[in-house]
Amino acid sequence: MRIRCSEHQQRLWFIDKFEKGYIYESSPTYHNLPLIVKIPQELNLSKFEETVKKVANIFPIFKTNFKSYDDSPFQVLQESVSFSLKHHQNLNLKTEGELKQAILEMVNQPFDIESDSLVRFDLILRNKDQYVFVITAHHLIADRKSLKLLFNDIVNDYFNGNVPGTDGLQYYDYSEWQNDLTHDDLEPFFFYWKKKLTNARVLYLDTDVARAHVHIYKAAFKDQTLSQDLSNKIDLFCKTHNTTPFYFFLTAFNCLLYKYSATDEITIGTLYENREKEELGAVLGPVANLLSLRTNLKDTQPFLSLLSNVVDDCTQSIDFSDIPFEKVVSKVNPEKDMSRTAVFDVLFHYENEEAKNNTLQQFEIIELNYGLGKYDLNFLVKKADTFKLFLTFNEKYFTHARMNRLMGHYLNI
To answer: 106 CB contacts (<8 Å, ≥6 apart)?
Structure first.
């Protein structure tokens, strides 16, 4: 079965085609998207493996490869795929750092998008009753929410015998709908985004190494957990000023970038889950969309005034989020620069893990904040009992010392 690709899939297919054999020997791995979950109990390994295989085979998107016909990419849906669960024992991983490094090596195994299964499953045995389950999917077939939905289905089937159904919308339905959008459908969105992003300034951050002419990438990671006291104060501030933690942290992040870039205009991106429509809520596939945010700052501007501006800008962007980011880039047509990503090099996103009826709440996630692309900075804030900050940065251009200072300055703000 051959299906037209979504705009997101076309972009990632082109990147894979361009960079494979030119910048990287194999396909680039910075679009390998992981979900890593600790399972603190003994498992029936054969039953768990059969459940993983069965559930993965239910959803067409996980049985999809990508091939070109007349130089255009298509999704090719297989009837059935022989998924496997790879077991890892006796790895002698003494620390969390060693565990993360071992997982990153698994995640960074390249996919061949034309022939490989584009989702992998690994199970690490820490001791008799503690496992680490790793799902790695190419961003061509999944977003972060998709992997959580898949894990929920696997767990609900394994523990409760609840086999997921496929009566709802599938990703190929979504990509076909997107391909059928007409110019008239998109014209109001084109008008908004072109007006917003025309002449948007590039955000220049000081690097420790000069940029290569063609963008190169190696991910490195920093994380920080805020104290319960500070988290409570942030929650109280948000309630007092009728705002959300997302907008609070985003505004503070804009302040940080203002100080680091010495420019009064900040253009960054955010990851919008794009699942407000009921029919998209349970779709497995890369539904999430990238939104560009453009904020003007003044040195003497009070924080609450800037917060209001950030909320207005982000709210308007969400109102015009039905157009794929790739269409926005094509219409705005920013100046081509092979050393950078299109429109923005910095990504900020927020996730609330306190959501009700969330199976993942019962498990501990090991967060890598990886697989979304090769941004200079990819900053994730997650809310559970406290707020946790995850910074993924391009080690080709920034040292760990510089990023430690940046994280410290953000906390000071």
So the answer is: 88, 120, 122, 134, 136
String of DSSP letters for 259-295: HHH--SEEEEEEEE----SGGGTT--S---EEEEEEE
Q: Which residues of the chain have pLDDT under 50?
A: none
Structure tokens at 280: 């998209």
24 Cβ contact partners less than 8 Å away, ≥ 6 residues apart: 110
pLDDT tens digits, 276-326? 998 999 999 999 999 999 999 988 899 999 999 999 999 999 999 999 999
Beta bridge partners of 308: none
What are 403's two structure tokens? 């990023």
pLDDT given at position 357:
55
Strands 72-77 and 64-69: antiparallel
Q: Which parts of 106-226 are beta strand (E)? A: 119-127, 130-138, 219-225
Tens-digit pLDDT profile for residues 55-97: 999 999 999 999 999 989 999 999 989 999 999 998 888 888 9
Rounded Cα gap, residues 92 and 134, in angstroms: 18
Nearest partner of 377 among 217, 146, 209, judged by Cα: 217
Q: How far apart are CA 141 and CA 128, in angstroms?
A: 33
Length of the chain: 413
The Cβ-side half-sphere exposure at 145, using a 13 Å CA radius, reads 21
Contact at 8 Å (CB) between 136 and 106?
A: yes
pLDDT value, residue 362: 84
Model pTM?
0.95
How do strand 377-383 and strand 387-394 relate by DSSP bridges? Answer: antiparallel
